[in-house]
Amino acid sequence: MPDCLKESSDMKPLRFPALVLALASTSLTAAWAADPELTVFDWAGFEEPVIFQGYIDKHGTSPTFAFYGDDDEAYQKLASGFKADVAHPCSQMVSKYRDAGLIEPWDVSKIPAFESLDPEFLDSEIFKDDEGVWYIPTDWGATAVAYNTENVPAEDVASLNIFIDPKYQGRTSLPDSADDVWALAYLATGTTDWTEVTDEQFAAAADWLRQAHQNVAAYWADPAEQAQLMASGAVDVAWSWNDGVVLLENDGFPVGFQRAAKEGSSTFFCGFINLKNGPGNEDKAYDFINAWLAPESAKGLLDTIGYGHTSTVAMETIKGEPAVQEGLSPVDAPILAQTPNDPQQRERQLQEFEKIKAGF
């Protein structure tokens, strides 16, 4: 994978394309009903046509989209019987889907651009083994400190301890995502590899996260909510993905994205799984993936979400874009890569995060 993966109270109106429309129904509703022969279970925001224009060119319409707010919510929904054809988990979830028997391998002979994928995104037997290719990585990004540059001095975001600084009590927001908050807590306490976490490292991160919880005004469910919290003046600092920053920048909001705090920042990558017994047309699932992997999709992905593309050919088309330099280029700081980790450890983190949010 790329090197970088290693005070007003008045509500300010924002232009948040489809993300705002999805806020009220991120988890269950097929908010964008279109082609009935392909249902894509996805994060809100990825229904933007510029990301998969080739599918629309071929079929005359977008797939039907259903939305979720976080990876664990998506898994629980699918494990409970919700039917879709493809879903878009991040890498650390793939083993859970495989273990549950919810997915089947992709036939990469039907995906011509598969060979253009950066091989480091497939460097795991969880994704690719003798049984086949279980995962098509498509996009990657960073999780780092977004901040209001008018209210927060640059020196304050030089450390992740801004999230436990009493000066920012009630002025911070964290994602309602166990993976991202634990990435933050591990980094803040000196752990940059979550694949081999000791009990002592886990305890230190949990203690830090409990301190950070005291400063949290709200846990954001998706990037539109995070951006709205910042734009409204409700919070000044957030642990953010690239897309929340893009939304704010597009609205002219004074937002900074600190990826080089002394303790570091995190990276992640996501992609598509082929769900067993999908109700739709299997050929259209491949058409959708092929549209996603087309080189021209990289610009749409960058402009709407702020993420990088897993295809080296596609990334070559956007390498000179300012958003790549600002939000995706390598930084001189530690990086915690959200690669697959032990499922039991991940479940432990999830349970502990729920306790922390509940005040325990």
Automatic annotation (TrEMBL):
Q: Which domain of life is it from?
A: Bacteria
Q: Which GO terms describe its biological process?
A: polyamine transport
What GO CC annotations are associated with the protein? periplasmic space
Task: List GO molecular-function terms, semicolon-separated.
Answer: polyamine binding
A Pfam family assignment: SBP_bac_6
Signal peptide span per the entry?
1-33
Cited InterPro entries: Sperm_putr-bd (IPR001188)
Grouped into one coarse class, the protein's main location is: periplasm
Q: Where in the cell is it found?
A: Periplasm
Q: Which keywords does UniProt give here? A: Periplasm, Signal, Transport
Task: Please give the PANTHER family that the UniProt record associates with this protein.
Answer: SPERMIDINE/PUTRESCINE-BINDING PERIPLASMIC PROTEIN (PTHR30222), SPERMIDINE_PUTRESCINE-BINDING PERIPLASMIC PROTEIN (PTHR30222:SF17)
Quote the protein name from its UniProt record.
Answer: ABC polyamine transporter, periplasmic substrate-binding protein
Ranked from the top, the taxonomy reads: Bacteria, Pseudomonadati, Pseudomonadota, Alphaproteobacteria, Rhodobacterales
